[in-house]
Amino acid sequence: MASISQRHETKGYQSPCKTPLVKGVLQGLQRKIGIEEKGKEALWLHELRQVIEALPTDKLIGIRNSALLVIGWAGAFRRSELIGINIEDISKTRDGLIIHLTKSKTDQKGEGQDVALPYGSNSLTCLVRAFEDWVSASGITEGPLFRRMDRHGNVMGRLTPASVRMVVMNSCEEVGLDPKRYGAHSLRSGFCSQAAKAGKAEHQIMQQTRPKQSDPLQCYIKKASLFDNNAASGIGL
After folding, report:
1. pLDDT by residue (tens digit) across 113-147?
2. 8 A C-beta contact, residue 187 and residue 69
3. Which domain CATH number covers 86?
């Protein structure tokens, strides 16, 4: 609807999408099929730890996937942002890592955004440790942080967005989670849900997730707090 409307208006025509006929058809479709958005399941922190623990620490691909999952989760990165990170974009400080995004979905002009990733208290999910392990094992000193690998373990070019989805799905399947229910977005939604459950303020979560608008964030917060002060709790059931 938005695309059709914009195309007409840029060509100097009145948008047909604003007519009562088209609006009526849309409302009818919404009543028939619903408007609920069905996305991938959130990967909660305890599930992330299960996944990381199952990865092979003696294989380069396991070390890479560990760093990919932990950094992707803690930074609430979109998969395009995650694979776009270069070594040159990362600064290590006494408090953790600072990753500079040169461009993202919500920064199309390329003004740049900094994402702070603090040290983790658990060795399994400490992103600084995961980052250092991957860089040390791979020998990467410049260019893309996350790269493809062949079956012989040779490090190649930049990882693709589709590969991030497959890493998440395959890693989840290894620990008994239904791979069809998880994808690359499970890292981002998992962070949002976990942060909301932990009582982090909305503005704190937004600072980390860099959303274009707060509507999707409200959805995560709502799901994470469904059982908080629930009316069915403590009434003798």
Report:
1. 899 999 999 989 999 999 999 999 999 999 999 99
2. yes
3. 1.10.443.10
